[in-house]
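Lecture notes, unit on protein representations.

Consider one protein chain, 348 amino acids long.
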Amino acid sequence: MSDVMVLGGGPAGLRAAISLAGLGINATVVEQETFLGGAVARHRYQVLMPDFSSGPELVNTLVEEVSRQSRIQVETGTAVGRVQEKGEGFQVELLGPGGKRSQEFQAIVLATGFKHFDAHRDGKYGYGVFPDVLTGSDLEERIADGHLVRPSNGEVPQSVAFIYCVGSRDRQVGNTYCSRVCCAVSAKQGIELRRSLPLARIVMFYMDVRTYGLWEDQLYWRAQEEAGIVYVKGRVAEITQRQGHLVLKGEDTLVRGPFEWDFDLVVLATGMEPSASTRDLSEKFGVDTESHGFFRQAGPLDSAALTNREGVFVAGTATGPKAIEDAIMEGDVAAMAVLRYLRMKVRA
């Protein structure tokens, strides 16, 4: 019997599996996509914040380490069907390319990641209506392809606007929380754009800038002082189109005045939401979710990996928005929590 199922093949899940193997515990990574690497691989992030390290290199390093571990089995293109308690563990139905089969596990690590807010849900920004309005993940894919041009006409943009907090801190769309990393990711993307668009006007429209911890110097001030990016505190009320340009209308809350500004390209910094499978898996494994729909961690004084359900652990953005480096660290935390749990079962 494989000891542990790690559900999710992103950075947190891969790190959890690697750490479990290093502790002498067999692990099966179950990933519903046909590839490993999570959002970094899905959207082909070329560089990561805050240190501009390589996204592909991170994924390749994790995947290669997984492939070298004889204690790790990988099941891609596989979803979870019926879940039953069996003995002191779980019998899980796996729905994969080879059909349906059941496997028993002593413990579960939920590392199911997140999904980006669907910008179609916020109509004032014209996403899906104006081709030159992109999301941050759209931009990542275009950077990876080397196509830094306007989708509408194939021309190199001379002006780019970023709009913060799209799908975050917004009661109207139902997400009242801060997605935590969007400000930093946008600064990183702005710096990336400056390298390929040295003369472009790049403007960040923000409610607040939340580059917490050590990111303030690494990203926020660097974006302004080295890349010449302009920050405007204000809310964009709507986007229209005029003579082939996007027109942003809103209010600058620092100078207390309205603005109407033309741009060639607009990038929406969309926030994080619980992955599509979160609700279903919470019911199947009996794990509570918190008020925003992410898996609930046991408590502030407990291990970050613990849930209300004995034998089921969590890691990464399955519990809420966080940076990749934090998600990877939580993979290690989950592995140690699983080790303690399995040792207690043996002693009992």
